[in-house]
Specification:
65% of the residues lie in helices and 0% in strands. It is an all-alpha fold.
């Protein structure tokens, strides 16, 4: 595989993670458990949308076929999206959202902390800006994990169940394929196997402090890098792509 193709695939994955998770979080608008948290979670969604825009724009440049960020975001079919499966899971109750968010935030923080040193100058620049926001995302989701885990008996039990339910989707974050191998060899991105080891350690530390039990590894859902998704993805795209499908070529 040529580096150009691998880089395009890599940028799509990073951009799709941000876009799909940002869309999920935006569904909380007006429904947060308290006003400040409602604002905070929507700000997180906006941050992720900003990350997606930067990554999609660069992906369009790398591809060289004249597609811009809107084309890439809104005019692909489900099988062409490469976001990790965990990003598309339903919000559920607030503990479900926090468990999902904490696990992804920890992954993003470790990943983008490495990408700021990427040999690709554009990725390094995008990451240098994004990591400042991701650091806040992680701090916030960590605080909520501690608050719910070490809170009431009900909050403890419910968020423990949330982590148990979402855990089997975490393995998909660390699957590597030919594109990843090219990216690693080129010094553009880090080895996800190494990040996985650190990620598990950091997650275990926070869950322990929150008086929660880290779920045991077992069967892991995967397939996102081949374009396989959960049954929820089609509904997300139906909402995301409505305007572009109904009014082709419309602009913001």
């Amino acid at each position: 595989m040529e580096q150009k193709e691998a880089l395009f695939n890599y940028l799509l994955r990073l951009g799709d993670n941000a876009a799909i998770l940002g869309h999920r979080l935006s569904e909380w608008c007006g429904h947060g458990p308290e006003l400040e948290e409602d604002i905070a979670i929507i700000n997180t969604a906006l941050d992720l949308l900003g990350h997606a825009r930067s990554l999609y724009s660069y992906a369009g440049e790398v591809e060289g076929k004249g597609r811009d960020e809107d084309d890439i975001a809104y005019l692909r079919i489900e099988r062409e999206y490469r976001n990790a499966l965990i990003c598309e899971l339903p919000n559920g109750h607030y503990g479900d959202t926090i468990a999902r968010q904490f696990l992804i935030d920890q992954f993003n923080f470790l990943l983008f902390s490495e990408l700021v040193n990427s040999k690709d100058e554009t990725i390094a620049a995008i990451s240098a800006k994004a990591i400042k926001e991701i650091r806040y995302h992680l701090r916030r989701s960590t605080e909520w994990t501690l608050r719910l885990g070490d809170g009431t008996e009900e909050s403890h039990n419910r968020i423990q169940e949330s982590f148990n339910d979402v855990w089997m989707f975490t393995g998909d974050l660390f699957v590597q394929d030919e594109s990843d191998e090219v990216i690693i060899a080129s010094g553009i991105g880090p080895d996800l196997k190494e990040i996985h080891t650190i990620w598990k350690q950091k997650v275990k530390e926070v869950l322990s402090e929150a008086t929660l039990t880290m779920p045991e590894d077992g069967w892991m859902q995967s397939g996102s890098k081949e374009g396989r998704h959960t049954e929820h993805m089609g509904y997300i795209l139906a909402e995301m792509q409505y305007m572009q499908r109904a009014y082709p070529g419309c602009e913001w």
